[in-house]
Amino acid sequence: MIEHLTIIGVGLIGSSLALALKQQGFVKRVTGCGRTEASLQKGVELGVLDDYSLAVSEAVAGADVVVLAVPLGAMHSTMRQMAAGLDANTVVTDVGSAKASVVEDARATLGEHMTNFVPGHPIAGTERSGVEAGFATLYQDRKTILTPEADTNPQAIDVVTQMWQATGADVETMSVEHHDHVLAATSHLPHMLAFSLVSHLSKMSDQDEIFGYAAGGFRDFTRIAASDPVMWRDICLANGDALLSLIEGYKLELDHVSQAIRDNNPDALYELFRDAKHTREQLRNL
Amino acid sequence: MIEHLTIIGVGLIGSSLALALKQQGFVKRVTGCGRTEASLQKGVELGVLDDYSLAVSEAVAGADVVVLAVPLGAMHSTMRQMAAGLDANTVVTDVGSAKASVVEDARATLGEHMTNFVPGHPIAGTERSGVEAGFATLYQDRKTILTPEADTNPQAIDVVTQMWQATGADVETMSVEHHDHVLAATSHLPHMLAFSLVSHLSKMSDQDEIFGYAAGGFRDFTRIAASDPVMWRDICLANGDALLSLIEGYKLELDHVSQAIRDNNPDALYELFRDAKHTREQLRNL
After folding, report:
1. Left if phi > 0, otherwise alpha if psi is -120 to 50, otherwise beta: which for A63?
2. Interface predicted TM-score of the whole assembly (ipTM), two decimals
3. What CATH number does residue A147 fall under?
C-alpha cells in the first residue's frame, strides 16, 4: 500500500499505472507532474490523478514513491530537478525502455538517493499515447523487469515489486545489460523495421494506391509504426549499440532471402519459412 | 448464381469462398478437388463441399466455374491436368498471390480455354491454413483484384466479378504488372521481413528467453511469419524480381536509421519516426 505516489510524465504508461493501483486500492493519493497543464487537468478529470504540480521538486515533496515516466531523453534533467525535493526515504523508479542510460543519468544526478532508485521497465504498451490512452488492465499478466544495481536498497526493490504486482504484472529481475540486449531484439528492432517499412513504401510514387491494397497482415505489421516518435528517437539514442548490431545481423538475414530468390532455390526458401513458422508457433504457447 | 462450382485446392481461401457463396445462396453444388482425401472428406463434413474427386479432370467435368486455389508452384501442372476435362463454356479463375506467373502457366496449358480464364486474387487471408480454417466472412469488405488480359471473354469477367461480389468483396481490375508490384510492396515484402525477424532472433543463443519477453507489438509484427511456407516459397519464386528490388530499397531505409543512430542525430530519427507515424495514421482511415 502506497500513501502518496508521484508520477512524473502522465502519458499512457503513467496513467495506466495510476488507474491500476487505484482500482486495486493500492494507493491513497496520486500526484501528477508534467509540462502541459491541460493534460494534468485532464488526468484529474479522468480520475487518474488527485492533484498535480508543474514543478518537479514540488510534485515529489512528501511522496513515498516517485515514478519517472518521461521519455529517456528527459530523464537526466528531470532527475536533476527532482533530487533536491526528495525525502530521504522516498523510493524512486522509472519505466524507461532502455536501462543503461537511465542508470547513468541516475548516478550522475541522484547523489545519496541513488540507493533508493530501482530501475524498472513494464513490458506493455500500445501505439497510442497520452493520458486519455491509459487503462487499468494494461499491465495485467505482462512482465515488468527491474534492473537493480548491487548497492540498491532491498527495501526499495520490495516496494517497487509490490507496486507492479498490484497492477497484475509478473515482476522479474535481471542485469541492465541483459535487459537492454533482450529489449533491443524483441522491441526496438521490430519497431525500427516497421517504421522503415512505412517510410520505404511512402516514398514509392504511387503511395496512396499502394496503401489502399494493404491487407490485415500489413496493418498488424505496421501498427507499431504509429508509436510516439519522441520515445523512439530517445530509445535509439539510449540503446544505439545493441540496435546497430541487430540491424546489421538482420540485413544479413534479408540477404539470405534475396540470395535464395536470385538462385531460384525453392528448398532454401521453404526451409527458411518452415523454420520461422515453427518458431513463431512455439511463441504462441509462451 | 452458379449451378456447379469446382474448387481445386480446398484450404483457407477455397473453403472460405465456398462457405460465403453457400451462405448467400449463390451456388448450388460445390465439388472439391485435392491431393488429400481426408481433407476433402473433412470439407464435406463441414458443409464446405457437396462432393469431391481426387482427379482434376473428373472434378472439373460439367462445372460452370472452376476456382484454382492451389499454391503458385502447382498451377502449371494443375492447369495441364484440367484442360482436357473442361467444357467449352466453363469459366476458370484462380486466387494466386502473384499474377504474371499464373498467366504464363495458363497461356502454356489452357489452349482455347484461355479466353475464359480470369486471373484473380482476393486480398484476404489469415496466418492459418487448411479447410478447417475457412470462414464465410473472410472476404467481407475486402478487395478482390482481377487482372484480365486483352483477349479475356467479358462474360467470363462478369461471372467471376459477380461471384466475388456475392462474398462481400469489393472487386477491382488492374494490369498483371501493376498487381504484382503493389502486392510485392504491401504483402510480399512485409512477409519476408517478418519471416526474417523470427529467423534472426531464433539464431541468437538465448532464443527462448528472448521470445519470453516479446510483447504485443512483437507478436502482431511476427504473426504473419506463421503463414504457410509452401505458399510463400512459391510467391518468392513467382514474384522474385519485384521482391528483390523492394528488399534492396528496404535495406537502404535501414541504413538510413543506422546512420542516424551512429551520428547520434536526434532530429533525423525524430523526423523519420514522425513521418512514418503520420503515414501509418492516414492508413487507419482508408
Report:
1. beta
2. 0.86
3. 3.40.50.720
